[in-house]
Amino acid sequence: MKLLFAGTPEFARIHLEALLAAPAHDVLAVLTQPDRPAGRGKRLSASPVKETASAAGVPVLQPPTLRDPSVQETLAAYAADVLIVVAYGLILPQAVLSLPARGCLNVHASLLPRWRGAAPIQRAIEAGDSVSGVTIMQMDAGLDTGAMLATASCPVDEETTAADLHDRLAALGPPLLLSVLADLPARQAAAAAQDDSAASYASKIDKAEAALDWTLPAVQLARQIRAFNPFPVCFTTLNGERLKVWHAVTATGPSGAPGTILAGDDSGLLVACGEGCLRLTELQFPGGRRLPVAELLRARADRLAPGTRFGTTPA
Fold it and tell me: Formyl transferase N-terminal domain spans which residues (predicted)?
């Protein structure tokens, strides 16, 4: 099958690799976001998808928009059977959706119609969902509203971080996509419409959301910490410094003012919340590495002593 592929981050790269390795498919060209400044030096950096496509000798297109008629003409010239879209990051206008002979398929990291939008992995964990998954969808002009061709699910437990769920879904998606492509006409004929009344929206992550509000219940804060690991990473403040919180679990303990360290040992720091307690087990001071609390207590016990109170306003 003649394919075009549109995607940008690591999640998309894994799907592109599977398509490149499949003898039944020919990836004619790849669309990805323009190179962006990255790292401390802010040098232009290629996306994971661009790196993989370039290494495989596949033409790479990086238009800033797909609404440009000249871009649409370029895509039309490939006469693709299908355009596969995985975490691309640009809106596909109807003119592009209509170009491939069998339309455009999207690999979405949720069990639609739950968590349409930009951050389905993080929002599922933040909401306390016990299950997530991947949906292969026939794209239409709406935001993740198209008919569903196939789904695959996986559990989400109280230890699952966004990084963990990303990897689980990245393992589910490629074989599901290949199975859909192998029987595409029948899958499209049997596609199931989404129940719009059951839809929820996974809004883009704002870095400001990572600030911990200790007046909230411990259960909610634990989910927030897992949802924003590895990005943007939750934080609190300690004596005017921003302290990253990489890992925490709910715990029982005495009551105290929200944000107050109640106890500390090799198992972590016990911190009072608006309801219940959190045990912080992995932290990162400014300029330092992320470390287990047990190691930090040996070096900074005075700064993390019981009675110390964390703030919520970044320095």
Answer: 2-181
